[in-house]
Specification:
The protein is an alpha/beta fold. It has two domains: 212 residues, Isopropylmalate Dehydrogenase; 130 residues, Isopropylmalate Dehydrogenase (3-Layer(aba) Sandwich). The protein contains twelve helices and 14 strands. The strands form three sheets. It has a ten-stranded mixed sheet with strand order 2-1-3-12-11-4-5-10-8-9, sandwiched between helices. Strands 6-7 form a two-stranded antiparallel sheet. It binds 1,4-dihydronicotinamide adenine dinucleotide and magnesium ion. Homodimer.
């Protein structure tokens, strides 16, 4: 059996608590299913800064690069607010994304039936919701040059951010979206603003050409990104996979997140390009939430976002589709039974802590 290498970066705050529940699942899969996971662990964020003055060491960076997949907990906390900017906890996360060239950010918005009441929308609009937002993560206006604030000398300043996209960047994110759509509802909705932005014109054109050349079996729709935001809130179940740029994807994925309830439920994946020799993609899996300093160390954090991130890892890095589905089903079953951490607590439910939630999912 081939080895499957995982590099674990629990990080700060509730990161180590929620990662502990994933470790139990890894141990179980190795013992009971001969899964062949080989794990190693490193430091990232404030804990790495405390240990060696950097938010991730070069040695741990090398391990992250070599592993089949990286599992990331969360970083940050008030005790590191005053550390220098380039070694602040978040710098470790940004370095991982940049050095591993993780250009595709996958944010599913799944509404478990048992939690439809917790959505900010009407339950019937979101019950059974299962959409995937594919956001371009390494280009666009967050990185484009020039990026400046200039003093105009007349009491006025001018701020410039630049939206830049090259054909190859749009092609590769579109390919990820089409490939993922084939494993789901086979429909992609591409969102941009071609009516007012040149980058939107090129985005639309390249997505259309990529579709025609390689993915014409997938259904493709186009929507202006502002209308897309409206439709996400009006009738979210119309979507399957949404592909969009860095800025629109940042906003649209946060909107989609609120359709599903708690921050403690939301997983994410970030993928790189396939290796030309092996076809394997570099990948990192992490919950959307942060280190939650307000509840860290209390044993009450919801581990579901971290566990669901591991389910994405099984699916996308190891093609363990059945195992991923089983793990997600186990989460749904536990919620159906009314087992809840504090953040998703409801009337009549049984309140549990982090380890009990992990145990309940493992038992399922
Ligand atoms: P946060 O996501 O850590 O917490 C926001 C609120 O949600 C808090 O009330 C927290 O208790 C709750 N929450 C979050 N995850 C939860 C879980 N699994 N179970 C139960 N409740 C949960 O965001 P916040 O408070 O803005 O940031 C705290 C620290 O985390 C900061 O240092 C920030 O920079 C960092 N951060 C790190 C991220 C990362 O590592 N990817 C992402 C976002 C923030
Ligand atoms: Mg955001």
């Amino acid at each position: 059996m081939a080895q499957r290498t995982l590099f674990l970066l629990p990080g700060d705050g509730i990161g180590p608590e929620t990662m502990g529940e994933v470790r139990k699942i890894i141990d179980y899969m190795n013992a009971e299913q001969d899964a062949g996971f080989v794990t190693d662990e490193g430091l990232v964020g404030g804990s790495a800064y405390d240990a060696h003055g950097a938010s991730i060491s070069d040695a741990d960076m090398a391990k992250a690069t070599d592993a089949d997949a990286v599992l990331f907990g969360a970083v940050g906390g008030p005790q590191w607010d005053a550390v220098p900017y380039d070694v602040r906890p978040e710098a470790g996360l940004l370095r991982l994304r940049k050095d591993l060239e993780l250009f595709a950010n996958l944010r599913p918005a799944i509404c478990y039936p048992a939690l439809a009441q917790a959505s900010s929308l009407k339950p019937e609009l979101v019950e059974g919701l299962d959409i995937l937002i594919v956001r371009e993560l390494t280009g666009g206006v967050y990185f484009g040059e020039p990026k400046t604030i200039t003093d105009l000398g007349n009491g006025q300043k001018r701020a410039i951010d630049t939206q830049v996209y090259d054909t190859y960047e749009i092609e590769r994110i579109a390919a990820v979206a089409f490939e993922l759509a084939r494993t789901r509802g086979n429909t992609v909705c591409s969102m941009e603003k071609r009516n007012v932005m040149k980058s939107g014109v090129l985005w639309n054109q390249v997505v259309t050409e990529t579709h025609k050349a390689q993915y014409s079996d997938v259904k493709l729709e186009h929507m202006l990104a502002d209308a897309g935001g409206m439709q996400l809130v009006r009738a979210p179940k119309q979507f399957d996979v949404i592909v969009t740029d860095n800025l629109f994807g940042d906003m649209l994925s946060d909107v989609a997140a609120m359709l599903t309830g708690s921050l403690g439920m939301l997983p994410s994946a970030s993928l790189g390009a396939p290796d030309p020799k092996t076809g394997k993609r570099k990948a990192m899996y992490e919950p959307v939430h942060g280190s939650a300093p307000d509840i860290a160390g209390k044993g009450i954090a919801n581990p579901i976002a971290m566990i669901a991130s591991f389910a994405m890892c099984l699916r996308y890095s190891f093609n363990m589709i059945e195992e991923a589905n089983n793990l997600e089903k186990a989460i749904a079953n536990v919620l159906d039974k009314g087992i809840r951490t504090a953040d998703i607590m409801a009337d009549g439910a049984t309140r549990v802590g982090t380890t009990q939630m992990g145990d309940a999912i493992l038992a399922e």
